[in-house]
Amino acid sequence: MNSAVKPSDKAAPDFGRALKDGVIIAIIAFALLGPLVGLKTDQNMANELILQNHLGLAAILSAVVGVGRFLLSAFVYPRIAARGNRSKAAATLAELEARARVTRGLSITGLIFLFVYPILIISLFGVQGSIKWVDNYGVQILIYVMLGWGLNIVIGLAGLLDLGYVAFYAVGAYSYALLAINFHLSFWVLLPVAGILAAFWGIILGFPVLRLRGDYLAIVTLAFGEIIRLVLINWKDFSGGSAGISSIPKVTMFGIYSFDVSAPNNFAKVFHLAASSAYYKVFLYYLILLLALLTAFITIRLRRLPIGRAWEALREDEVACRSLGINTTNTKLTAFAIGAMFGGFAGSFFAARQGFVSPESFIFMESAVIVAIVVLGGMGSMIGVALAAVAMVGGTELLRELDFLQVVFGKGFNPDQYRMLIFGLAMVGIMVWKPRGFVSARQPTAFLFKRKTVSGDLVKEGHG
Amino acid sequence: MMTSHRTWDSDPVLSVEHLTMRFGGLVAVNDLSFSAGRGDITALIGPNGAGKTTVFNCITGFYKPTTGMMSMRPKDGALHLLERMPDFVVASKAKVARTFQNIRLFSGMTLLENLLVAQHNPLMIASGMTFLGVLGIGGYKAKEKAAIDRARYWLDKIGLTARADDPAGDLPYGAQRRLEIARAMCTGPDLLCLDEPAAGLNPRESAELNALLLSIRKDDGTSILLIEHDMSVVMGISDHVVVLEYGIKIADGTPTETRNDPRVIAAYLGVDDEDVEEIEQELDEAAGSEEGRA
Ligand SMILES: Nc1ncnc2c1ncn2[C@@H]1O[C@H](COP(=O)(O)OP(=O)(O)OP(=O)(O)O)[C@@H](O)[C@H]1O
Ligand SMILES: [Mg+2]
């Protein structure tokens, strides 16, 4: 095997050796399959034991095995070995820089694409046809991008594994729902309020919890996430219990235009357009896009401030941080609170978009998906997290579209039911292929001469 | 040297009194008292497991001592009782900085970033506790520039300026040790505690380290307390040596005094060849007399 690989990555496959491998494996397979498949005992009409001869079938199967081995030896193994050799030699700086440039290019094109996306969709599918693409894909994915970016502060930068992030999403959603219904306050007033309340909850929960580290922290945050959900289910007077809260007011366009059909200043009426919910969806799309970009903007700024550097130092080595006079409890709390605040913003948006909230929306699965997005994206990387959100949320949405698979798997096949299975397989695959997520390299926050990308192999993941 | 004034008695920067640290049944440090003089290089030596690192951990607040009092007097004249402070306050208020026996750098961050994290507290204030910094007001940029200049000063001093933008984890071992010292110095300490800074260094690097420590004392006026096994470092640069064995202090004085102390020779430097012969003779005699009786 080795000799076939050694000369060079691009050397022609060693067919002679592969052929020998294939033949040997085929013979071994026949020796095994011969008795197992080739000879079969059965009963004849007279209840006598007879021996049926399937040696032909055994031969065919052995041939298949042999050919498979030949293909593996000739094409697949050399390639895997070459890949292994390459990744073992640590990625050079030039490679890292090239990758960083690709990532930067991707962010800019991605940003432009995001702003023209609704226009593109409307011109392609018309006003009514755009709803699915703008709402189910655009808005849905962007909510998770925002949640991923928020949690990225806690997990990716500060290295604190928080499995109960959805609790802050819930706090934001219920804050908006309850305050808007009971006090008739507008979304624009309640958006910051929801963020502040979520951050406040982050501090209250964080104070006892952040003394713990690693697995303990993960388990206790998970429990807090569940506690909030259970309180929402059981405190019926306050939250409406498992029935949830409905008819939550929509977002208005800064109070000037409304999207309520009955309102006199309805957007479509004012502009004499055909009534459609598509305008509201496009408005929501731009709203969540701006909220997500706000999250990104603030995170990028924070990273370059002392607090952000302290978060990353905390992820690298907490003991060293304390020896340098950094109050690690406060530093962790700020990460927790700021992450929670963005969760709260996203939550209030979610409530306004759905018009309905119930504890069902805030199950542990949601936290798990957001954590998966952060880990998959590469902890700490904004663009990586965004790509992971597109893959995870967009991917699962896309499964609903795969009706043509019924042609292959029969009428009753519903790809949506295999969602979790595919999701899990994809996760395993990506963790094997890229164990540190899509984008693992780290950009330094300050430089003396030249900003050099730091290879992901050196960056620690934090331990609590 | 013998008759020179003893700064550690007249003007101590750190005084440790009756320090005891127990781990369950194990007494790692037993009723230890010593002082480190202002502007001195004080060496804490002793065989493996003598309790040296434990003393450091007590001084820097990482362990709460079982009993004892540790007072720190920084240049500003204040008096800090270290046993009452959490670890990060020891560093920020009492101005005690430290390095670790097994290097603890932020390996995924660049050299410059490592040195900026060390200046966290003043930079945090400069950024208006982050609030002003996020909005880009309050003159944070200028303060950060000053912090970078300070980092640059230390990088020049440890000879790693050219590698300022490389990750700390990529540095060779000796350079990591120097960077850890520079990082501790960036907190602006009055007392620098070094846990075996010369461990794993070759003779040339070890000599460079001596020069660095002497210049830290001279240029920055920082007192140094160091744990060391390398006798060329201990005898070469220290003004004061404290010797521990099994958590008990067995000698305390100038390098020459301690070097000639028979207990230190027996416990730490190993029993001398002549002594070994003496002991063997005694044993032989004892055996002989026993045979005679039988
Ligand atoms: N956290 C701890 N829990 C229990 N025992 C400890 C702890 N820390 C240190 N010890 C014990 O205290 C004793 C002194 O250890 P210490 O690390 O202070 O020795 P040292 O003088 O630094 O040795 P070395 O020269 O090997 O670094 C040892 O017996 C050690 O096992
Ligand atoms: Mg030690």
What's the gist of this structure?
The complex is a heterodimer of chains A (464) and B (294). By secondary structure, chain A is mainly alpha-helical.
Description:
The complex is a heterodimer of chains A (464) and B (294). With 464 residues, chain A is mostly helical. The model of chain A is unreliable at 1-10 (pLDDT under 50). Chain A folds into 2 domains: 3-82, no CATH class; 93-458, ABC transporter involved in vitamin B12 uptake, BtuC (Orthogonal Bundle). In chain A, a hairpin with a 5-residue loop joins strand 1 (39-43) and strand 2. A two-stranded antiparallel ribbon of chain A has the order 1-2. Chain A contains 17 helices and 2 strands. Chain B has 3 domains: 1-95 and 189-259, Rossmann fold (3-Layer(aba) Sandwich), CATH 3.40.50.300; 107-187, no CATH class; 266-294, no CATH class. In chain B, the strands form 2 sheets. A 6-stranded mixed sheet of chain B has the order 6-7-8-3-9-10, sandwiched between helices. In chain B, strands 2-1-4-5 form a 4-stranded antiparallel sheet. Chain B has 294 residues and is α/β, with parallel strands linked by helices. In chain B, helix 4 packs across helix 7 (140-158), helix 4 runs parallel beside helix 8 (173-185) and helix 7 packs across helix 8. Chain B is 43% helix and 21% strand. The interface between A and B is large, with 38 and 49 residues. Bound molecules: adenosine-5'-triphosphate and magnesium ion. Residues 23, 26, 28, 46, 48-54, 101 of chain B line the site of adenosine-5'-triphosphate.
